[in-house]
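G., the chain you wanted modeled:
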Amino acid sequence: MPTAMPIKTFVSAIVLSVSLAGIQPAAQADPSKYPEFAQQSLPEGITPVFINVEELVEVVKAGTKPLIIDVRTDEEYKEAHILGAVSAPLAEFKDYLKSIPRDRPVVLY
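Predicted structure as tokens:
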């Protein structure tokens, strides 16, 4: 992994499984839970970079302050979430898109 995340990358996406017991190793998203989003593609010019929890920790330790966005449902967010993450459920994500900063890394989980 490079020491600095590229500013050109608008959205960096990670897939995390968060439980009440803590943060588990990275896992693939289950498209059956979100069938309305499973077939969507990213807008032109958006290239996600997938990182795991350990890499995210290193990015934060290096002084980078990514915006961390939890795209799960409100109920899932209330159950457990990464400290400092903001909630922007996938069903409403288009409403949040305009407010996402383009001058720093963004992490979606």
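The chain has one domain: 12-25+46-108.

Shout if anything looks off.
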